[in-house]
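Issue 218. Parser rejects a valid record. Input:
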Amino acid sequence: MDEDEVGTVDVPEATVARLPQYLRALSTLAEAGLRTVSSEALADAVGVGSAKLRKDLSHLGSYGTRGVGYDVEQLHRQIADHLGQTTSWNVVIVGIGNLGHALAGYGGFASRGFRVVGLFDDGAHVVGEVVSGLPVRPLDDLPSVLRPGEPTIGVLAVPAEHAQVVCDRLVAAGVTSVLNFAPTVLRVPADVDVRKVDLASELQILAFHAQRRAVRSTAAAPAPTAPAPTATASVPALQRSRRPALGATGPVLDRVGEVV
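Output the parser choked on:
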């Protein structure tokens, strides 16, 4: 596939979400010295079905070679092209609290073509601090850091109540790609892309599946076997069956809390 075609191929969002996983697996295979990989082996490395993998890669125009598989280097380059990793991307982070500090110091950005060029916060106690080699600037300095013509991604690590205002300022400064860590929905123009990272929602989804597994496990468990009645010569069987057991409390159900 020609590079000119990369931006015009219509790739489903679900496929796009899996492309970074394929790229990471291919990087590991390349480091191990492998030149080709079967769809089954690559799918197993990523944790998806081989049929889904082949369909995903077909959207990129890559079908592999029967009996051989995929060329690791070529497929890596092709996916990297689609993910924009052949281009250097500037990143600005707004909100230098605990999360902002962690993001600023993340070493994985540079190896994937992302360069943090600016840190911003409006807190007087934070502005001027040097984090991972960069000074924290006031948000008013944003236009002076962004360079016309250079692609820039804005990362929001601010409280939800400030996210929309900060996003508006990023958009006004020319940012058209926003990664939002705030637990709120942002309203942006049609030409601005927003990706939301909601850690609480991800934990709730995991809790939902854990709860379902617990319920299924309880339902599948065999019912306890009642002990055989013990004969008592002095009390007729019918009379014994009507006598309440001392201290009986009835069955107790342990309920798993609902995930809201």
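Fixed in the parser; the record now loads. The mean pLDDT is 83.
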